[in-house]
Write a structure and sequence with these properties.
Blueprint lengths: L3 E2 L1 E4 L15 H14 L3 E3 L7 H6 L9 E7 L11 H7 L5 E7 L2 H8 L3 H17 L3 E7 L1 H7 L1 H14 L3 E6 L6 H11 L8 E5 L6 H11 L3 E4 L13 H10 L1 H4 L2 E2 L4 H4 L2 H11 L17 E2 L5 H6 L17 E2 L2 E2 L3 H10 L9 H15 L8 H12 L7 E13 L5 E13 L2 E9 L2 H11 L12 E11 L5 E9 L5 E8 L2 H20 L7
Parallel strand pairs: 1-10, 2-3, 2-9, 3-4, 4-5, 5-6, 6-7, 7-8, 8-9, 11-12
Antiparallel strand pairs: 12-13, 14-15, 15-16, 17-18, 18-19
Catalytic activity: pyruvate + acetyl-CoA + H2O = (3R)-citramalate + CoA + H(+)
Protein name: Citramalate synthase
EC number: 2.3.3.21
Length: 534
């Protein structure tokens, strides 16, 4: 039997940006797009052109390679034509290939919040869809408060869907905006909507205010919708959105879905979802949920107690799917198992070949686990993993050695009487037999150290001329006077490629310096620089 195609629409960069405490920079968005492309989603909604400086810059060029790059916006305002509405035109004129326009589908909201008639609302929506379609963009309508609207005025909610389809919308997305609808209600309403629109033109956009966004989404799929909207790790306004990191494995691994539906993801991409989930948490500078379904550190952890004898005979009885299918690993508390397959996959991704029975692999596994117990997290810092792996495997070239470094901060008045803070860094680096000392000033100790390290690297200086520090994030892993700090540094070179390195230490400057050192080392590996000694 041919399986029906389901389409994954990611709204992390727009819905997720409404999460309390999260602000995306342009560089954040670019790096998250790379994670989403690795995962293999079909659509990436990047934000709202015209709404702010960050989104304007992000939509100045196409940011995706494979996924459909999508811009979010509102339908035209009442009293304006589509051509004369600046907000709509900003969306249509962006570098996106598709648009997702939001319009209210609840008669109560239309008359009270917008202050217009429900028929005028339909005309505004239809004109906006037509204008977007005419510009050559794949067009979607997000039906805000749809399920509440259906309960309030079923006939109008269905007219809304039919009008959008007739105007040329490729997808009409049913949104449970306040997250209060129950799974059984979702299924019944979705089935009713199909009296005016086929399921392969319908999507679901569920919020998690009752903790049922994933369940509501799955109910909608079984009832007929074929586009799924959600975010990485379920981030979003208030309680969040449907979690794609939970939905995707469920759809691909559970027979009730896998036998009927197909996604645009390969098994290899599914096996990368744990890394992507944790790397995303690192990007937004927060800890990963240990008990997150499928990808959490405890998702396949079993405590040897009452189940000890049964575990010894059949550990798989306590796992609803094999952990390796989602890139996670089994953890029996009295003795850790697995890990080798994950390491081999990661090494292969970076072109490092090693046999599974090679004793060096065991040493690398022990080293990674020991370092992770101290606060390192290599899911979000692939470049640091490459440096560590080559060091443990004995294949890391001896490019240079840091003899010492020093950073000092001085607060003083300048010649104009202004109070300023100056940071100076001194770094001594040995390249072969040459001892090089560099001094630099920066707007902080990390910036000063970065500039000093790259100021003179002897024979390797030509290889790092295009290297720049793009982003810098700090997390305090445990509080108190003995706090451990983890630093994540994003670097980029002239090719446009970015990579992440990390450092961990009770000392913020020491952790930062470790991350900077590994960034330089990775860059030299990347360009194939020849070491002075093998």
């Amino acid at each position: 039997m041919d399986r029906e195609r389901l389409y994954i629409f990611d709204t992390t960069l727009r819905d997720g940006a409404q999460t309390a405490g999260i602000e995306f920079s342009v560089e954040d968005k670019i790096s998250i797009v790379r994670l989403l492309e690795d995962l293999g989603v079909d659509y990436i909604e990047g934000g709202y052109p015209g709404a702010n400086v960050v989104d304007d810059a992000f939509f100045s060029q196409k940011r995706t390679r494979r996924a459909t790059f999508t811009a979010f916006g509102m339908t035209k305002r009442a009293g304006r034509s589509a051509a004369n509405d600046p907000g709509l035109q900003a969306v249509i004129g962006s570098a996106a290939s598709a648009t997702c326009l939001v319009a209210k589908a609840w008669d109560h909201q239309i008359t009270t919040a917008l202050g217009i008639g429900i028929d005028e609302n339909l005309r505004n929506m239809a004109d906006s869809v037509a204008a977007s379609v005419a510009s050559g963009k794949e067009t979607m309508i997000d039906c805000e408060h749809f399920f509440d609207g259906w309960k309030s005025n079923r006939d109008y909610a269905l007219r809304f869907v039919k009008t959008a389809i007739d105007a040329g919308a490729r997808w009409v997305v049913l949104c449970d905006t306040n997250g209060g609808t129950m799974p059984s209600e979702i299924a019944d309403i979705v089935r009713d909507v199909q009296t005016v629109a086929p399921g392969d033109r319908l999507g679901i956009h569920a919020h998690d205010d009752t903790g049922q966004a994933v369940a509501n989404t799955l109910s909608a799929v079984l009832a007929g919708v074929r586009q799924i909207q959600g975010t990485l790790n379920g981030i979003g306004e208030r309680c969040g959105n449907a979690n794609l990191v939970t939905l995707i494995p469920t759809l691909m691994l559970k027979p009730v879905f896998a036998e009927r539906f197909a996604l645009g993801l390969s098994e290899a991409q599914l096996a990368d979802i744990t890394r992507i989930s944790r790397a995303f948490d690192d990007r937004i500078n927060r800890g990963s949920a240990r008990q997150a379904p499928y990808v959490g550190a405890s998702a396949f952890a079993t405590k040897a107690g009452i189940h000890a004898s049964a575990i010894a005979k059949d550990v798989s009885s306590y796992e609803h799917v094999p952990p390796e299918t989602v890139g996670n690993e089994r953890n029996i508390m009295v003795s850790q198992q697995a890990g080798k397959s994950n390491l081999l996959t990661a090494l292969s991704r970076h072109g490092i070949a090693i046999e599974k029975d090679d004793s060096r692999l065991d040493k690398l596994l022990r080293t990674v686990k020991e370092r992770e117990s101290r606060g390192y997290s290599y899911d979000g810092a692939d470049a640091s993993f490459v440096v560590l792996a080559r060091k443990v495997l004995g294949t890391l070239p001896d490019f240079f050695t840091v003899e010492s470094y020093r950073a000092s901060v001085e607060r003083r008045h300048n010649a104009r009487g202004e109070l300023i803070t100056m940071t100076e860094a001194v770094v001594k680096i040995r390249v072969g037999d040459d001892l090089l000392m560099s001094v630099a000033e920066g707007n902080g100790p990390v910036n000063a150290l970065d500039l000093a390290m790259r100021k003179d690297l002897g024979r390797y200086s030509e290889h790092i001329e295009d290297l720049e520090l793009v982003d810098f994030k700090v997390r305090i892993l445990n509080g108190g006077t003995g706090a451990v700090t983890r630093v994540l540094v994003e670097s980029r070179d002239g090719t446009g490629e970015s990579w992440y390195t990390m450092g961990v230490s009770p000392n913020l400057i020491d952790a930062s310096f470790e991350a900077l050192y590994e960034s330089l080392t990775y860059k030299l590996l990347k360009v194939g620089a020849q070491p002075l000694r093998p």
